[in-house]
Amino acid sequence: MARLVMKFGGTSVADMDRIRHAAAHIRREREAGNHVVAVVSAMAGETNRLVTFTKTAGRLQDPREYDMVVSAGEQVTAGLMAMVLQDMGVPARSYAGWQLPIRTDGAHGKARITAIEGRDVLAAATSGQVAVVTGFQGISPGNRMTTLGRGGSDTSAVALAGALKADRCDIYTDVDGVYTSDPRVVPRARRLDRIAYEEMLEMASLGAKVLQTRSVEIAMVHRVPVMVRLSFADPAASAVGTLVCDEDEIVEKLVVSGIACSTDEAKITLVRVADRPGKAAAIFGALADANINVDMIVQNISEGGQATDLTFTVSNADLERAVRVLEEARNEISYERLLNAHGAAKVSIIGVGMRSHAGVAQTMFRALADKGINIEVISTSEIKVSVLIDAEYAELAVRALHTAFGLDAD
Ligand code: ADP
Ligand code: ASP
Ligand code: MG
Q1: Which atom number of ligand 1 is nearest to the Cα of residue 177?
Q2: Architecture of the domain defined by 259-404
Q3: What are 81-134's pLDDT values in tens digits?
Q4: How far is the CA of 45 from the centre of ligand 2 (A)?
Q5: Which of 54, 76, 153, 210 to mutate for ligand 2's pocket (most ligand atoms within 8 Å of CB)?
Q6: Looking at ligand 2, which residue's alpha carbon is closest to its atom 4?
Q7: What does the pLDDT look like over 131-181, one tens digit per residue?
Q8: Residues with CB in 5 Å of ion ligand 3
Q9: For the chain, which residues make up each domain, given as ranges?
Q10: Are strands 3-8 and 307-314 parallel, antiparallel or unpaired?
Q11: What pTM does this model have?
Q12: Does domain 3-250 have CATH number 3.40.1160.10?
């Protein structure tokens, strides 16, 4: 007997047939004697539809009302899932985020969970009733609805699993696990049986959207075993999947276990910035004050100590604002020219095996050179190497690296 949190994403609850299919997975686990808490997303496409409404509602985009609108999709699915379960003879009831409550900070649209009161859902689960909880939703210190950022139901589920001390959090989705690369981009990608928390964290934050980054952070901190699995699989059988777990639990470690790609990258270069202490602080301070996240940064060595070029990346959505901020701060920073461009891609190789293997970056650069792909910026950490390239070559680069690191399925 185990305590399980089972999360179903948008495509897994896209219509009534899919909700019934998902409910059959819940029934299987419950009939096996497990205590189950379910977390559901909005039906596929529903959150996008609601976001579009808010854009046409008025010029004043009140973030509190935005959250009120976009959190509604999850409520529909939670109620429907509870009804379908009851119809199958499985006792069930729905919970909105505020009914637990799932408390968050007040950062509307991308709130962070601060505390979860899980007593009621735990009592329900222990008594054999399935608690169906809305994903994505929370409640702010001021008692307003909040949402956890796009893809946030993963975070609801993992945080709930942590709070309830669940034995496992199962993430049911439209793929049967975590692959060496996005299977939609790399047809020869392979499913991994296991992936370490650290690797999954890098994969998610570097572009693999199979799990929301914050959900992996929480799983890692609270040591929640997370299993990514296919919801369309036969509910009569407990299907395979990928276990996201501690590095020590992985016997066969790959040097590179995944390749991720993000095409949401814009590049800014400041040409001939005065080479004096305080200039980098002025540049990145101005951007931070405007709430703009900077990702990769390179600074050239200056000739004669006079001036240097500085290149960095921001998300496409922030590019225009970043340029405005830097132009306004031009006198303080003092640079000659500002160059900027959309359309860059960040391609990354990830693997805990890199810690103990030399020559990994060299293999990466060679594979890209062989395809004639130019590297614009490089950044590394202990378990990843990322390069910035022209977005036009992103898919070619991902496939070439997949082959170069021996990840292709037979
Ligand atoms: P859900 O609606 O269930 O939350 P998502 O669409 O958010 O599902 O995440 C699943 C998708 O993530 C898959 O359809 C797949 O295309 C994509 N994906 C990206 N990278 C990977 C990867 N490395 N392994 C598996 N899936 C990936
Ligand atoms: N429905 C929300 C979204 O589309 C949350 C989620 O599905 O995880 O972003
Ligand atoms: Mg998702």
Answers
A1: 25
A2: 2-Layer Sandwich (3.30)
A3: 999 999 999 999 999 999 999 999 999 999 999 999 999 999 999 999 999 999
A4: 9
A5: 153
A6: 47
A7: 999 999 999 999 999 999 999 999 999 999 999 999 999 999 999 999 999
A8: 9, 151
A9: 3-250, 259-404
A10: unpaired
A11: 0.93
A12: yes
